[in-house]
């Protein structure tokens, strides 16, 4: 398997990359910091990824660089059939309400630019006869929720986009995997009070990779978030207004 | 201090990409493996250790030190959780030389490299430790009589020192700093990267031999005799047996199995069980401990047994219970570990065990090990002699007095204690048993004149300002 990873220097993305490395896959890492990419690449090589693990600069806030980064990935790997996007920005509702400039960055990184990146990937995968595009959305996009209005809105848009992509192109060989993580113990959530049954990074990464292998269109990690979100989606508005969830 | 600056912008977004922004500190409660003491602290956790250690007072890995070594001295001292900084940076399959970030766990390293025929030169009794912690504690293992401490094998370290600079140190470069950092409890600088050679092993399995031994003299004699022919030895003794049976126990010896005698398949890593809840204190009474120790002793029914062992069973017998520290109940527990110089009649060890038993000490098995030469770390724990380690639950009425009496005995006998286990020793006792303290303090003073790096333990034992 030849895999392009965007955002694998940290968190769940790193854990997924390590599982791929242990299977001996060919990997290219896209991300912002050349130094962090290099260090992660060496780590993946020692863990079993086919050496050398290539890296290329790619910044979700600079969509003009997407084509070049993916060109580079095609050159390095000689084509690819799997792309996993775990990169994204997060800000609490309070932060985003207070800082419109930050809100603009989060909204464009998590929605517009992620979609633009996926469009670049879509064209290339379809030209190569298909493949798998796995993108991290969030349970935050399942319902308009008070603690994650802006972030959730971006993720909601992203989830719908991925769903549409899957409906239209699966028959032509492009499988879209939309990952909806709930609370997972990572650097991003360090210090937040975890809800019951919060996910562990490695376990979540294993489920994500299984979904990529099978081409599952949508997964919730940890899986208990599926029934939880099913309830949330169906709560009447007067309840949603009263609860802080 | 830098801490306040780091904490100030509450509106910092967090990114899962390589955002060059400082990670967010957060308030949390922290405790060591003994669950005593418990303190409030300010922690920060990030994949980027270089960035996270700016302005920090202390680093903390998997929190396996028993007492207060990895706890902050004050609630607003920043403590860096290193466990996300766990990348392997270089590995040479010809020489075994390995370089990794300090938060890499021994568990992860074993999972990756044991099956490829490599093992750390020195392993402590649990694999839930980070490389940084192994350096800071200068850990020893079952092969101490032959291979010394982890620090002996260490090639070099990358440190963030107190003034914010990043320094590479080794025996060739900044030797003083290097030797103070080995076994220096993280007080000389934040360990960012660790480089050392992995050892080639003939197979990932162990050929082990266990022997039941009826008293202390025979146990120590057995350890000394086995040291000549076995690379790894340790003994477990029944801490409650008295009189003639004092120090009766099990002598465990092992070596890496040769390919011919070991199974062809690599050992499957075990999934640890979890203790579901903290056990009520009633479970832990003298009778139950006595029963457990007796059962363990009797389990080794044939006086001698040998065979192929799973490496985890041999090196990390307690890791089968993921959180065995909960069995001691709400108040937590402590471990007392000291090394006592050799004596012909094993008098020092005998007196220590007798004192422990007479003071109503309750301990599951006590671990006895003969130590080889002193390590190169300035505060490294082992020295030639017999190391004794006993766990016991914290009792507000009793524990301080018991540790004081044990320490007085250790001072009289010319031994010393292991800082990684300690939560109760008094500063004057520590000074009395540690003639090397002056040299260590001088290096700290030189690299950290303002005393920015400190822990609850360094305030308690080394006289750092609180």
The gist of it:
Chain A is of the alpha/beta class. Chain A is built from nine helices and ten strands. In chain B, the strands form four sheets. In chain B, strands 16-13-15-14-18-19-17-20 form an eight-stranded antiparallel β-sheet.
What is the helix fraction of residues of chain A, given as a range?
40-55%
The H-and-E topology of chain A, N to C, reads as EHEHEHEEHHEHEEEHEHH
Sheet having the most strands of chain A? 7 strands, parallel
pLDDT average of chain A, as an integer? 95
Number of domains of chain B: 3
SS class of chain B:
alpha+beta
Mean pLDDT across all residues of chain B, rounded? 89
Overall 3D shape of chain A: globular
Number of helices of chain B: 15
**Chains forming the largest contact:** A-B, 40 and 31 residues
Top CATH class of chain A: Alpha Beta
**Roughly what percent helix of chain B?**
25-40%
CATH-derived architecture of chain A: 3-Layer(aba) Sandwich
The number of helical runs of chain A is 9
Please state roughly what percent of the residues of chain A sit in beta strands, choosing from under 5%, 5-15%, 15-25%, 25-35%, 35-45% or over 45%.
Answer: 15-25%
Q: Poorly predicted ranges of chain A (pLDDT <50, ≥5 residues)? A: none
Q: How would you characterize this protein structure?
A:
The complex is a heterodimer of chains A (245) and B (466). Chain A has 245 residues and is an alpha/beta fold. Helices cover 50% and strands 18% of the residues of chain A. Chain A has helices at residues 11-22, 34-46, 66-77, 93-98, 100-127, 149-169, 201-214, 225-234, 237-242; strands at 2-6, 26-31, 54-57, 82-85, 89-90, 131-136, 174-181, 184-185, 199-200, 218-221. The longest helix of chain A has 28 residues, at 100-127. Chain A is globular, with a radius of gyration of 17 Å. Chain A starts with a strand and ends with a helix. The mean pLDDT of chain A is 95. Chain B is of the alpha+beta class and 466 residues long. Chain B has 3 domains: 2-15 and 22-81; 88-201, Uridine Diphospho-n-acetylenolpyruvylglucosamine Reductase, domain 3 (2-Layer Sandwich); 206-433, Alpha-Beta Plaits, CATH 3.30.70. Chain B has 15 helices and 20 strands. In chain B, the strands form 4 sheets. Chain B has an 8-stranded antiparallel beta sheet with strand order 16-13-15-14-18-19-17-20. Chain B has a 5-stranded antiparallel beta sheet with strand order 6-7-11-9-10. In chain B, strands 2-3-5-4 form a 4-stranded mixed beta sheet, with no helix packed on it. Chain B is globular, with a radius of gyration of 22 Å. The chains are: A alpha/beta (245), B alpha+beta (466). Chain A binds chain B through residues 6-7, 9-14, 31-33, 36-37, 39-40, 42-43, 46-47, 59-60, 86-91, 94-95, 98-99, 102, 105-106, 186-188, 190-192, and chain B through 10-20, 23-28, 43-48, 81, 84, 87-91, 112.
């Amino acid at each position: 398997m030849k895999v392009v990873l965007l955002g694998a220097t940290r968190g769940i993305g790193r854990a997924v990359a390590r599982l791929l490395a242990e299977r001996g896959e060919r990997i290219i890492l896209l991300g912002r910091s050349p130094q962090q990419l290099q260090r992660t690449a060496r780590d993946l090589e020692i863990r079993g990824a086919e050496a050398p693990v290539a890296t290329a600069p790619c910044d979700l806030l600079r969509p003009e660089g997407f084509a070049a980064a993916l060109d580079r990935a095609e050159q390095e790997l000689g084509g690819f059939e799997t792309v996993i996007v775990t990169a994204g920005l997060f800000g609490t509702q309070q932060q985003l309400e207070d800082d419109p400039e930050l809100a603009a960055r989060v909204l464009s990184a998590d929605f517009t630019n992620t979609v633009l990146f996926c469009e670049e990937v879509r064209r290339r995968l379809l030209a190569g006869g298909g493949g798998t595009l796995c993108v991290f959305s969030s349970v935050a996009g399942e319902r308009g929720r008070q603690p994650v209005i802006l972030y959730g809105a971006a993720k909601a848009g992203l989830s719908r986009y991925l769903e549409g992509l899957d409906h239209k192109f699966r028959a032509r060989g492009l499988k879209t995997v939309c990952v909806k993580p709930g609370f997972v113990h990572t650097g991003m959530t360090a210090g937040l009070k975890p809800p019951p049954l919060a996910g562990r990074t490695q376990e979540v990464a294993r489920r994500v990779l299984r979904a990529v292998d099978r081409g599952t269109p949508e997964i919730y990690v940890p899986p208990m978030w599926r029934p939880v979100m099913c309830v949330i989606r169906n709560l009447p508005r007067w309840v949603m207004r009263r609860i802080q969830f | 201090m830098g801490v306040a600056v780091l904490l100030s912008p509450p509106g910092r977004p967090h990114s899962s990409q390589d955002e060059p922004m400082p990670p967010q500190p957060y308030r949390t409660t922290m405790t060591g493996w003994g669950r005593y003491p418990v303190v409030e602290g300010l922690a920060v956790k990030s994949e980027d250790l270089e960035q996270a250690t700016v302005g920090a007072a202390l680093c903390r890995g998997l929190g396996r030190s028993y007492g207060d070594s990895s706890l902050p001295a004050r609630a607003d001292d920043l403590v860096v959780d290193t466990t996300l900084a766990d990348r392997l940076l270089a590995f040479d399959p010809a020489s075994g030389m390995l370089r990794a970030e300090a938060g890499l766990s021994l568990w992860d390293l074993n999972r990756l490299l044991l099956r490829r025929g490599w093992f750390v030169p020195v392993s402590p009794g649990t694999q839930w430790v980070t490389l940084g912690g192994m350096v800071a504690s200068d850990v020893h293992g079952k092969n101490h009589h032959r291979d010394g401490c982890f620090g002996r094998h260490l090639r070099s370290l990358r440190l963030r020192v107190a003034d914010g600079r990043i320094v590479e140190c080794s025996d060739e470069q900044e030797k003083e700093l290097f030797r103070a950092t080995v076994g220096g409890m993280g007080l000389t600088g934040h360990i960012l990267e660790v480089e050392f050679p992995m050892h080639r092993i003939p197979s990932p399995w162990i050929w082990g031999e266990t022997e039941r031994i009826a008293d202390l003299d025979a146990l120590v004699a057995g350890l000394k005799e086995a040291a000549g022919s076995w690379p790894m030895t340790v003994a477990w003794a029944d801490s409650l047996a008295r009189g003639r049976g004092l120090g009766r126990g099990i002598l465990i010896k092992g070596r890496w199995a040769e390919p011919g005698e070991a199974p062809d398949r690599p050992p499957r890593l075990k999934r640890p069980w979890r203790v579901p809840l903290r056990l009520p204190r009633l479970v832990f009474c003298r009778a139950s401990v006595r029963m457990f120790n007796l059962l363990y002793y009797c389990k080794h029914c044939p006086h001698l047994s040998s065979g192929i062992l799973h490496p985890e069973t041999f090196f990390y017998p307690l890791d089968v219970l993921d959180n065995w520290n909960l069995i001691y109940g709400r108040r937590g527990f402590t471990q007392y570990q000291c090394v006592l110089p050799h004596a012909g009649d094993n008098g020092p060890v005998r007196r220590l065990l007798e004192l422990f038993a007479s003071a109503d000490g309750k301990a599951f098995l006590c671990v006895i090990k003969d130590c080889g030469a002193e390590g190169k770390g300035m505060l490294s724990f082992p020295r030639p002699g017999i190391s004794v380690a006993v766990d016991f639950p914290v009792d507000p009425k009793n524990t301080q007095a018991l540790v004081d009496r044990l320490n007085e005995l250790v001072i009289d006998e010319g031994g010393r204690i292991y800082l990684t286990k300690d939560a109760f020793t008094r500063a004057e006792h520590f000074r009395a048993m540690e003639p090397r303290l002056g040299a260590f303090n001088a290096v700290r003073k030189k690299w950290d004149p303002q005393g920015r790096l400190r822990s609850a333990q360094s305030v308690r034992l080394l006289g750092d300002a609180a």
